[in-house]
Design a protein that fits this description.
The complex is a heterodimer of chains A (608) and B (393).
Chain A lengths: L2 H20 L1 H8 L8 H6 L12 E2 L1 H4 L1 E8 L1 H22 L6 E4 L6 E4 L3 H12 L3 E2 L8 E6 L1 H26 L5 E5 L3 E7 L4 H9 L4 E5 L10 H4 L5 E2 L2 E2 L8 E8 L5 E9 L2 H12 L7 E10 L6 E10 L4 E2 L3 E9 L6 E8 L1 H13 L5 E5 L2 E4 L10 E5 L6 H19 L4 E9 L3 H52 L3 E2 L1 H30 L4 H33 L2 H32 L10
Parallel strand pairs in A: 1-23, 14-20
Antiparallel strand pairs in A: 2-8, 2-22, 3-4, 4-6, 5-6, 7-8, 9-16, 9-19, 10-11, 12-13, 13-15, 14-15, 17-18, 18-21, 19-20
Helix pairs in contact in A: 1-13, 1-16, 5-7, 7-12, 13-14, 13-16, 14-15, 14-16, 15-16
Chain B lengths: L20 H19 L7 E2 L1 H4 L1 E7 L6 H10 L5 E5 L7 E6 L7 H14 L7 E2 L6 E4 L8 H10 L4 E8 L6 E7 L2 H12 L6 E8 L1 H29 L5 H22 L2 E2 L1 H31 L5 H11 L1 H14 L1 H6 L2 H48 L1
Parallel strand pairs in B: 1-10
Antiparallel strand pairs in B: 2-4, 2-9, 3-4, 5-6, 6-8, 7-8
Helix pairs in contact in B: 1-8, 4-5, 7-8, 7-9, 8-9, 8-13, 9-10, 9-13, 10-13, 11-13
Classes of the chains: A alpha+beta (608), B alpha+beta (393).
């Protein structure tokens, strides 16, 4: 045999063994009764030599039961709110500028602001000077009044931001309850779709998701030493010279950060971290909570590490003062901006408070100059910047150092969203709700499994009868294909849905297509009088591109479907894509390795 | 040595596919037209599932046989005109799919009546907010301290609208509060009604799906867009890999297959939903495969059989690849057998429509896609001749 053949054989056997090994956690997962699968019993049952126990096949909403929600953002109302806030702001602004204002209120339909003033032309001039980039003054206002309306581009931009904000809030909340494998996606038409497999209580889901986000400002207690003793109770967080080494121990671990103090010095502040939010919460309850004073509290923040698809996250604690100094209700606007006072400019967050909020903010920032102020959204610390100076109605948040301009601008945008989230009145409504009863699950899984097996058996028997030896070889490849698809799906933690099972069956049917093409071509070459070896070589070479073409066209459709589909349909598309990729390997490489072995002599015969 | 095999399609078959193209194209055109006409809402229309039409769908299981007509009558007695009830799964399951066509939103009169009633009792600030896209929620802001939730509920219910929930939310301006009144959805009513009327048969609601009309419309448009995008990408790929001369044939073939697959849903009246879009997309991606095989052979033969007429080359190519185009489709169809036998509801429809799509894909390869290439070629030739003779004259 040729040397490359041994390499190819090693690859084929290697892939088969890897697939089986990768499916070990899935095997143990499905051996347990459904109630025990998502609990600690599963983690314990997986043997030590197996791959990461989290990498198993998941059952989708349709098979496991659970909840699917589509939350719509009522952007209409958000826009009305923005107009109402701006009306208040304009009244204050005009008073500041010494222009007499009788009233400043949104019109009945909420689309524009009507300002009544003894000196309407001057009011118009003053307002447009300040807000001209965002607003225009439409004509048609009655005598003694002037109208202001947002420009359509501003409204459109704002509507987009409103949806982005709502998504952030929802993500944050779902993350907090620790539902396994939640899927949150932004869809067109101002909607956000949330899938919660295994979640049983629709009322609770709606209640938790439908609430308005609460934004609070709290002061970080960096001078306190109460948490230093955790260094003897928890392990230190593992790190390499390049950075943190994730995942962190499940017990939680400690880290140090250098913090500047208002007195001018620096201090190493101890905090705890863990890879999962629940793990950190457990660590807080046992190790941290008992140590803190009554006026102190522990906030949890999220840290992203790495870039792109390798991005990982962990959670960390902040020691903060329990008292809520200020809430987000008082914020009227926030946006990312650039502070050009320093060299090339620094991305910052610019925010505007309502007049009353401005007074509270001024007091707060004067008293806590140079301390860190945590912005807490829904109980999660989003950011903790230093207070650099007195802030009143208009403030800006400077970001920490150590990142490039682009990342900083992105963060400024994120923080602006968080700040505004606190300012927005309940913009989310439930548009769609689907509850799948658990009783539907087992019945459908059983039927799906039988259907898949019957389809597989029919294809295999046909190949064996029609192509005999070559058919048997194709069948072996088909089995490897099935294992490989399931293994890749487990590795990706994919979700198996009922249409997904149909997609799996269909890919097995499509996978044999390649072998039909190859075998038919071999027959044709044999008929033309070639030797078996020649016929096999020619058969594979000549149909190679045909097989690639047919797979690519099917992949194109599957990828479009994945972009479009949601829930079960997406599961189908994912299965189809993985199946098509796997079938390129098994139907060409695997069958060829085996067939080469049988036709290694020039006089070899092959039933095809 | 004589090489012997059993071939489903005997070796050396010479069937004149190109010669039959007129009949085939006419038949296909008529059939496609019939599907399109039948799918038009004005004539018959597709039965859009809850995914696309919006509405509430429930799967209810009873412990004994219940007359589906009786269930429908009870639901229609509640005021839902386009309720539909169908059995779901095997008879022995006593499962029914109850569908209430469209979610009944609050009508504008309802809203006006509620607002009037609340304004009559309390001092309302500004204009209450109602968005028809949301459908069941009205937001009020009050002057001064808002009234008690129970009082608001009583006021709304006095206007004849049942209330599901009254809750407080942040108001339009900073620091203010607003009160949201959520009215009762039809889901609760239908559920309660079924329990009341069929308590003897122990109804059990297994699954409830609720889709707002906005979501449905959006999904439907996106679905059709996705199909068009996939087709365009495939045509571009085939054009780049082969020759853009082949593109018109590919376009016509995949559009044909997509329409025939749609025909399954149009003529059987089975529900057209997200999964149906998935089937059509898969058919579009799969049916090109056969076409690719034949085109590959045409390209090979054009180089090999120089001097022959294109029509003959196409015919020879189709005949030479007849076995494999048939067998690939057959093998894929075989894998669907299990789903056809054991599948219920959506999954059965998936398998059946896929099967029809596969058959249509093979047919269109033989009779439409390849012969279409000749027709276009002949037209191009004729044009050239006309142009040449015009020049000569």
């Amino acid at each position: 045999m040729e040397r490359t053949w041994y390499w190819r054989l090693a690859l084929v056997v290697g892939v088969a063994l890897w697939s089986i090994w990768q499916l070990v956690p899935t095997w143990y997962y499905f051996r347990l009764p459904p109630e025990a699968r998502n609990g600690p019993k599963y983690e314990e049952s997986v043997p030590r030599w197996a791959p990461d126990s989290r990498k198993h096949l998941n059952l989708g909403l349709d098979l496991q039961g659970g909840i699917l929600l589509a939350m719509g953002v009522d952007v209409d109302r958000a826009v009305k709110a923005k107009v109402a806030r701006r009306a208040d702001e304009i009244a204050d602004f005009l008073k500041d500028k010494g222009v007499a204002v009788a009233s400043s209120a949104p019109s009945a339909d909420g689309s524009k602001i009507e300002v009544r003033s003894a000196d309407a032309p001057r009011a118009e001039q003053v307002v447009l000077d300040a807000y001209g980039s965002e607003m225009a003054a439409p004509s048609g206002a009655p005598e003694g009044a002037v109208w202001f309306a947002f420009k359509p581009s501003v409204i459109k931009d704002f509507q987009g931001k409103a949806v982005e904000q709502a998504e952030k809030t929802i993500r944050n909340r779902v993350d907090k309850w620790g539902v396994s494998e939640p899927d949150i996606k932004r869809k067109a038409n101002n909607q956000i779709q949330i899938q919660l497999p295994g979640f049983k209580d629709p009322e609770k889901a709606k209640e938790l998701l439908g609430r308005t986000a609460q934004l609070e400002f709290k002061i970080a207690d960096d001078e306190s030493v109460v948490l230093d003793p955790i260094r003897s109770e928890l392990p230190a967080c593992p790190s390499t010279p390049d950075g943190w080494q994730l995942p962190f121990p499940a017990t939680g671990c400690w880290m140090l950060e250098t913090v500047e103090l208002p007195s001018g010095g620096q201090r190493q502040v101890t905090y705890a971290a863990a890879s999962k939010r629940q793990e950190l919460e457990a660590a807080i309850a046992t190790a941290l909570r008992p140590k803190i004073a009554r006026d102190q509290d522990i906030g949890i923040g999220e840290v992203m590490v790495g870039q792109g698809p390798l991005k990982e996250r962990f959670y960390r604690t902040f020691l903060i003062r329990a008292k809520t100094e200020l809430t987000g209700d008082y914020i009227s606007d926030a946006r990312p901006g650039v502070d050009s006072s320093k060299g090339a400019g620094e991305p910052v967050v610019i925010f505007t408070m309502s007049p009353e909020g401005g007074r509270l903010m001024e007091k707060l920032t004067t008293e806590n100059l140079h301390r860190r102020m945590a912005t807490v959204l829904d109980g999660k610390v989003e950011t903790a910047p230093y207070i650099q100076g007195k802030i009143s109605t208009n403030g800006q948040i400077t970001l920490g150092s150590g990142r490039n301009y682009q990342e900083k601008y992105q963060e400024a945008n994120d923080i602006a969203l968080v700040l505004k989230a606190g300012a927005l009145p309940a913009p989310v409504t439930i548009f769609e709700e689907r509850t799948v009863g658990a009783t539907l699950g087992p019945e459908l899984i059983r039927r799906g499994a039988i259907a898949a097996l019957v389809g597989l058996a029919a294809v295999m028997v046909f190949m064996l009868l029609y192509y005999r030896m070559s058919g048997l070889i194709a069948d072996v490849a088909l089995v490897e294909n099935g294992l490989l698809v399931l293994a890749i799906m487990s590795l990706l933690g994919s979700t198996l849905t009922l249409p997904g099972i149909a997609g799996f069956v269909l890919t097995l049917g499509m996978a044999v297509d390649a072998n039909v093409l190859i075998n038919e071509r071999i027959r044709e070459e044999l008929r033309a009088g070639k030797t078996v070896r020649q016929a096999v070589e020619q058969g594979y070479d000549k149909v190679f591109w045909t097989i690639v073409d047919s797979h690519v066209t099917a992949l194109v459709a599957a990828v479009v479907l994945m972009q479009y589909g949601s829930g079960p349909v997406r599961g189908f598309a994912v299965t189809l894509i993985i199946g098509l990729l796997a079938s390129m390997f098994t139907s060409i490489v695997v069958t060829r390795v085996i067939i080469n072995w049988f036709t290694r002599k020039d006089t070899a015969r092959l039933s095809v | 040595m004589q090489f012997k095999t059993f071939d489903i399609v005997p070796h050396g078959t010479r069937f004149d596919f190109v010669g039959k193209r007129r009949i085939a194209v006419t038949l296909s055109l008529l059939f496609n037209l019939a599907v399109i006409l039948w799918s038009l809402p004005a004539i018959h229309g597709l039965d859009f599932g809850v995914d696309f039409a919006g509405g509430t769908e429930m799967q209810v299981r009873f412990d004994r046989v219940v007359d589906p007509g009786e269930i429908r009558r009870q639901i229609e007695a509640l005021g839902f005109k386009d309720a539909s009830v169908q059995t779901y799964g095997p008879e022995s399951d006593h499962s029914y799919l109850v569908r209430v066509g469209r979610i009944s939103l609050l009508t504008q009169e309802d809203v006006d009546r509620v607002i009037g009633a609340v304004k009559g009792k309390f001092q309302v600030q500004g204009q209450p907010h109602f968005s028809p896209e949301v459908g069941d929620k009205i937001d009020f802001e009050f002057v001064g301290t808002p009234p008690k939730h129970a009082d608001i509920r009583a006021a709304v219910e006095s206007a004849g609208v049942k209330v599901r929930e009254v809750r407080e939310e942040a108001g339009l301006t900073a620091g203010s509060r607003s009160i949201a009144v959520l009215t009762q959805g039809i889901q609760d009513r239908v559920e309660r009604e079924l329990f009341a009327k069929f308590s003897g048969a122990k109804p059990e609601v297994l699954r409830v799906e609720y889709v707002g009309p906005a979501v449905g419309r959006e999904l439907r448009n996106q679905g059709f867009k996705a199909i068009i995008y996939a087709m365009a990408l495939i045509v571009v790929y085939v054009g780049l890999r082969f020759d853009f001369r082949f593109s018109p044939g590919v376009i016509i073939a995949i559009v044909h297959d997509a329409i025939i697959t749609l025909g399954y849903f149009a003529f059987t009246g089975r529900e057209f939903n997200l999964t149906s879009v998935a089937v059509i997309l898969t058919v579009v991606g799969y049916s090109v495969n056969d076409t690719v095989v034949v085109y590959d052979r045409i390209r090979e033969n054009v180089a090999k059989l120089k001097g022959k007429k294109l029509a003959d080359i196409v015919n020879i190519s189709i005949n030479e690849t007849l076995g494999r185009t048939f067998l690939t489709s057959f093998a894929t169809a075989l894998s669907l057998v299990g789903l056809l036998v054991f599948g219920v509801g959506t999954i059965f429809d998936f398998a059946m429509a896929m099967l029809i799509g596969i058959i249509s894909g093979t047919y269109s390869t033989w009779f439409i896609a390849a012969p279409m290439t000749i027709w276009l070629e002949e037209r191009a030739e004729a044009k050239k001749k006309v142009a040449a003779s015009a020049k000569a004259a």
